[in-house]
Write a structure and sequence with these properties.
four-stranded mixed sheet; globular; two-stranded antiparallel sheet; 6 strands; alpha+beta
């Protein structure tokens, strides 16, 4: 039986990166459809999403990443840039059937190449790397249509799904708990097995 997994994530959340790797490994070889939902953790900031709290990266992120074999070069440069434009681009990528390729490219660019995913010029280059037409992508991320779609997705996540932080993973309607939203691999596998019946 096919299983649907819903995942709420933020490109600038390192726990989303870790959960993404664990989920990718857990669903390999299974009949699973993953639906990725963008969720800005700081949607009301103007340009910058702030900074990681002092020491949080070394105290929380680095040990968890090492535990699950997720290589990280270090904390992203401060100040953290907001991911709004990247998420607007994601909505367009979904329309083009390139959501996964786009997400792969943005996570790699942000965490391993220190690329600024809030810059429209840089974001257009990354979208092209993911197979999207640069001109059409640029027009889409600057259009009210895709901005509205992203804002509607945010409203739905907050109001209908009660999402307040990321990552959140839901397997067949059951939310999985974990350290900063990252579930243990055994718990994830158990939920997938149970949902497959």
């Amino acid at each position: 039986m096919s299983v649907t997994v819903h995942v709420w994530f933020d490109y600038i959340c390192p726990f989303s990166l870790i959960a993404r790797k664990l989920l990718t490994e857990a669903v390999a070889g299974r009949d699973v459809t993953c639906v990725w939902h963008p969720f800005e953790t700081n949607p009301h900031c103007v340009e910058e999403a702030g900074e990681y709290p002092p020491g949080a990266w070394n105290r929380l992120v680095t040990p968890l990443a090492a535990r699950y074999d997720v290589p990280l070069a270090g904390a992203p440069q401060n100040p953290l840039r907001r991911a709004r434009l990247a998420f607007v681009g994601y909505q367009y990528a979904l329309d083009c059937g390139a959501g996964q390729a786009y997400n792969d490219r943005l996570f790699t660019a942000y965490y391993y190449q220190w690329r600024d995913i809030s810059d429209p010029v840089e974001l257009t280059r990354l979208a092209a790397d993911a197979g999207l037409d640069p001109g059409r992508f640029r027009d889409a991320v600057l259009s009210p249509r895709y901005t509205r779609r992203h804002l509607d997705a945010l409203d739905h996540a907050r109001d209908q799904e009660a999402i307040t932080g990321v990552p959140v993973i839901s397997v067949a309607g059951e939310r999985l708990d974990g350290f900063h939203g990252v579930p243990e691999p055994a718990l994830l596998a158990k939920a997938l097995d149970g949902a497959a019946g």
